[in-house]
Amino acid sequence: MAENNKLEKLVSLCKRRGFVFQGSEIYGGLAGTWDYGPYGAQLAHNIKDIWWKHFVTNQENIFGITTPTIMPEGVWQSSGHLSGFTDPMVECLSCHNSFRADTLLPGGMGFNPKIWQSNLPNCPTCGAKKWGQIKDFNLMFPVDMGSSSSSIAYLRGEIAPGMFVNFKNILDTLHPKLPFGLAQIGRAYRNEIAPRDFLFRVREFDLMEIEFFLKEEDWQTHFEFWKEEMWKWIEKVGIDKESVHELEVAAEDRAHYSKRTVDFEFDYPFGRKELYGLAYRTDHDLKSHSNGSKVDLSYFDEETKERFVPHVVEPSMGHGRTMLAVLLSAYTEDEMDGEVRTYLKLKPAIAPVKVAVFPLLKNKPELVKKAREVFGMLKKEFGSVEFDDNGNIGKRYRRQDEIGTPFCVTVDFDTLEKSEHAVTVRDRDTGRQERVAISELTTFLKIKFNP
Ligand code: GAP
Fold it and tell me: What CA–CA distance (Å, rounded) separates 139 from 156?
């Protein structure tokens, strides 16, 4: 399949089947925002649930928290977002569209004014080469709070500060020993100059992130540990590992707080670009927030009787980019029964629908009754189970294939008439069908889901 139209096909499937719609579509759409329809929302929840299990509940020393998306100006002054959370913006003087200047240069990472001047690109919209001055454009969204304008606040551009400002609360309440981490899943907002490429660059998205606090001398060990956990996660969630590549980010391209950053890049149809990041943030954040708030954010080591500010390793994973990489990895076309078939090869654990149940014919009450019984039994066990009696069986298979349902169960006349009361179970990936007795169906599917 040509990579350049794979994205178009995926976007079309996502709309056709109720995964993702343009945000505020009936008002003409709001750039950089996307609505998740029923299957997208379920997929999104499944990804978050598995992330939480992998990175929080399955770990010994990670505490999950949730913090507000609005934080006061002081937080963002300390974190450096008000001064440094900017992208280089440039306006085409011919068509007056604005662009992120760094994305117009070959290579993509970082922005070098000298390279810009000596390689002036053509405007991607109108082709002209007439550019205005490069400006630093701040990505933070200010918020008017309350009735007086004295309290300036911002929608968070990162979720990390919510964890740094809670460091002391956690020390005072849970008294954890280093190393330990705070984890959070939540919304971040960035006023991106040019949102693009579907879920890749948007203005509002969820982040799944850990701030792991440690002793300075141990940072490399923990950095390697979290790198391995991120690889395990990539496999677990069903992102094609062959399409993911580590990139050691050069010093000049790293965020000001980072002493080492490894990006996990993914081969999207529009090029190899960042999926996730892993950064060693040193003691920069706790020190900055301690200075800004005038609250001591140091740690006292009972064993060595030393007081110091912990250092931080931060695995940071964008949820929307996870959705995109998962969907691109799952999107498959093959040939079945002489026709091109499209399906999402999603792992059962994240598939929005685990099983679909059909009566062979809609107008035979005895088939419908039995199918509804089977549906009720499976729904109790697997939750996300669908009953479908629309159209013919072929159409129902095509629909379930496109939403990535791993198994379809059909109740037919043999189910009613033959002594074993078997149903047909069809495997999404192979299209193979086998007969399974209703009494064994739940166990059969459980084994298929967790081989
Ligand atoms: N706390 C670190 C941090 O926020 P970041 O590299 O700015 O680091 C983290 O963002 C992750 O958020 C990225 O690796 C990417 O997955 C995702 N991300 C960043 N900007 C995004 C955008 N505009 N749209 C969608 N996802 C984005």
Answer: 10
Angstrom distance (rounded) from CA 40 to CA 46: 10
Residues 304, 78, 141: CA angle, nearest 5 degrees: 140
Kindly give the number of the ligand 1 atom that is closest to the alpha carbon of 319. Answer: 16
Q: Is the dihedral of CA 215, 217, 220, 221 positive or negative?
A: negative
CB atoms inside a 10 Å sphere around CB 53: 13
Q: Distance from the CA of 208 to the center of ligand 1, in angstroms?
A: 10
Q: What is the distance between the alpha carbons of residues 262 and 249, in angstroms, rounded to a whole number?
A: 6
What spacing in Å lies between the alpha carbon of 314 and ligand 1's midpoint?
A: 12
Q: Give 118's pLDDT tier (boundaries 50, 70, 90).
A: confident
Report the separation in Å between the CA atom of 189 and the middle of ligand 1, taken as the mean of its atom positions: 10
Token pair listed for 15: 């709309």
SS3 272: strand
- Tokens standing for 412? 């037919």
Sequence-distant (≥ 6) Cβ neighbours of residue 127 within 8 angstroms:
none
Tokens of 288: 């900055």
Q: Which atom in ligand 1 lies closest to the alpha carbon of residue 276?
A: 14
Residue with the smallest CA separation from ligand 1 atom 20 is: 201
Considering only residues 144 and 183, tell me which one the structure prediction assigns the higher pLDDT.
183
The pTM for the full model equals 0.95
Residue nearest to atom 24 of ligand 1 (CA): 201
Strands (E) in 81-148, as ranges, are: 86-91, 98-100, 135-138, 141-144
d(CA 244, CA 264): 6
Cα(154)–Cα(189) distance, rounded to whole angstroms? 9
The token duo for 335 is: 């040939």
Please name the residue whose Cα sits nearest to atom 21 of ligand 1: 201
Which structure tokens are listed for 365?
Answer: 């009450």
Tens digits of residue pLDDT in 390-423: 989 999 999 999 999 999 999 999 999 988 899 9
With beta carbons less than 8 A apart as the criterion, state whether 314 and 160 touch: yes
Whole-angstrom distance, CA of residue 296 vs CA of residue 294 = 7
Q: Chain centroid to CA 151: how far?
A: 32
Q: Which residues pair with 343 in a beta bridge?
A: 332
DSSP H helices in 144-265: 160-164, 167-174, 219-237
Ligand 1 neighbours by CB, cut-off 6 Å: 158, 160, 190, 192, 201-202, 205, 207, 209, 274-277, 314, 316, 318, 320-321
CA distances to 24, 60, 174, 194, 357 from 29, rounded to whole Å, are 5, 44, 45, 15, 36
| CA angle at 113 for the pair 109 and 118, rounded to the nearest 5° | 100
